[in-house]
Design a protein that fits this description.
alpha/beta, Beta-clip-like, Post-SET_dom, binds S-adenosylmethionine, 2 domains, globular, five-stranded mixed sheet
Length: about 350
């Protein structure tokens, strides 16, 4: 008898039942919406493989994953640069290349982040994880800067010590120990990417960085940003990358730069690895004819280490691929074919024991 009572009551009170269902629905809606909120927070942190697996679990997660993929392919820079740098692929189904973004060089450390959010519709322009590892740590606070605080920032904003034309091998800029501020005209490489670029897929070379507007000769294009490694660590990674390359399609972006000091008796060696953490420069391919970019080591006053920067070595047309020479040495037995297509192509990519 008692067990039947509720059903009698329900049949007499249809509205009450309706309200109970509404309450359930409200509860369901609330838990569904917090599920989506969580998914939208968590999914942008996933690697492409994790995202693909998650998207198989239900329609809603499939939809969220799809919109994350679209956002990722619309801007390789994860909004860290002033302009979006999209991926364009008419060759295969890979929508984007996966790596962590840093707009400036960072010291390599075991504390480097393993993950970075990418593809969230509420991305902020703040480099959320770069700051603790970023430019601050590479600064050497001390004297030696200019004292032109009174001139910079007013009038045309040009610093009287401007001397960067971008086509010399080593140049100096104002920096942390100068009296001028971030608007100073002698800091043109310190404000990130300011030319329109895109990353286009090529059947033979993989991803290629291309101009998306005319870039006049001498214009700063971008810095080569990545993890700064010790030489021992660079050698270790080089070996690891060679092994990975043997196993299939893998591109490394470890660049070794040697600067002969004025005495010619010593050489400064910079090992910059943009393979796992880097910026758009990691997509610049090699050309045996030297390409259309010149590399310049830029020193800024008060900074511990120079930065490797790319400038247009001639007027670059919209759509043209941006390239430079990786070097002239081809010594190693594990060589890769070069597809630069220039008339002076050696047939193999430069390689040397590091
Ligand atoms: C710094 S990455 C450049 C971006 C690379 N294409 C990608 O898809 O990520 C260097 C790698 O790109 C490829 N690459 C660069 N220049 C090339 C060229 N001229 N011909 C063939 N492959 C090239 C090689 O696999 C090389 O190890």
């Amino acid at each position: 008898m008692q067990l039947q009572q509720p059903s009698l009551e329900r049949s007499r009170e249809p509205n009450k039942r309706h309200h109970q269902e509404e309450n359930h629905k409200d509860g369901d809606n609330a838990s569904q919406s917090s599920f989506f909120d969580c998914a939208e927070l968590v999914l942008p942190w996933l690697t492409p493989l994790e995202l693909a697996n998650t998207s198989l679990t239900c329609k809603s997660l499939h939809r969220i994953s799809k919109s994350i993929t679209t956002l990722r392919s619309s801007d390789a820079s994860r909004t860290f640069e002033n302009l979006p740098i999209p991926f364009l692929n008419s060759i295969d189904t890979q929508p984007y290349a996966f790596f962590l973004y840093t707009p400036a060089q960072i010291p390599s450390s075991s504390a480097s982040p393993q993950r970075q959010s990418w593809g969230s519709s509420s991305s902020s322009h703040e480099p959320n994880w770069v700051a603790p590892f970023g430019a601050e740590m590479l600064r050497l606070v001390g004297g030696g800067g200019c004292g032109c605080r009174d001139y910079c920032g007013d009038g045309d904003g040009r610093c009287p010590c401007s001397r960067l034309h971008g086509l010399e091998d080593v140049v100096s800029e104002c920096g942390p120990s100068c009296g001028c501020g971030s608007e100073c005209g002698n800091r043109s490489t310190q404000r990130g990417v300011s030319v329109k670029m895109k990353i286009v897929r090529d059947e033979k070379k993989g991803w290629c960085l291309c101009a998306d507007e005319l870039i006049p000769r001498g214009r700063f294009v971008c810095e080569y940003a990545g993890e700064l490694l010790t030489t021992n660590e660079a050698r270790r990674r080089h070996q690891k990358y060679d092994e990975l390359a043997l196993g299939g399609r893998f591109s490394s972006a470890l660049l070794v730069v040697r600067e002969h000091l004025p005495s010619r008796k010593a050489c400064l060696r910079l090992n910059i690895d943009a393979t796992r953490i880097g910026n758009v420069a990691r997509f610049i391919n090699h050309s045996c004819d030297g390409g259309n970019l010149s590399t310049v080591l830029v020193r800024s006053s008060g900074a511990l280490l120079p930065h490797l920067c790319f400038f247009a070595s001639n007027d670059i047309k919209e759509g043209e691929e941006l390239t430079f020479s990786y070097g002239g040495v081809r010594l190693r037995s594990k060589r890769s074919r070069c597809f630069c297509g220039s008339s002076s192509c050696f047939g193999w990519l430069p390689s040397e024991q590091t």
